[in-house]
């Protein structure tokens, strides 16, 4: 977090020389210590976040791949007169355990074309799918697998 504070300091100054760097390091350290004291930040927590960063990058790569694939699945409904068979699906997954993971899964489903998460309550998802074929395997999708690994770290 200290590095992020320092990077924002340099960005806002627009240039970097030794005076700006030293003063920025002091100000960034003071803000970081304030955050550690009053906002429950810690160096251990920041290091844990850095360890999870590669897995998060993999998760975003999978998300982009699934968005690309789903875009091609939606194209026939847009460019032809093929009628969709919309369906609303309820499912739960015990594999994603944290609230943050559940919300991330709901957002991944919503960002994928053809599906919208309507509700997430107590681990139960309510998802509207443009076509019945898009509803298959929502509870055991690649997002669930990647989030399960990410939470295990």
Keywords:
alpha+beta, elongated, single chain, 153 residues, 3-stranded antiparallel sheet, 5 helices, 2 domains, 61% helix, 3 strands
What does this structure look like?
There is one protein chain. With 153 residues, this protein is an alpha+beta fold. It has 2 domains: 2-38, no CATH class; 51-152, no CATH class. Helix content is 61%, strand content 12%. The protein has helices at residues 2-13, 18-38, 43-79, 99-111, 142-152, and strands spanning 87-92, 115-121, 124-129. A 3-stranded antiparallel sheet has the order 1-3-2, with helices on one face. β2 (115-121) and β3 (124-129) form a beta hairpin. α1 (2-13) packs across α2, α3 (43-79) runs antiparallel to α5 (142-152) and α4 runs antiparallel to α5.
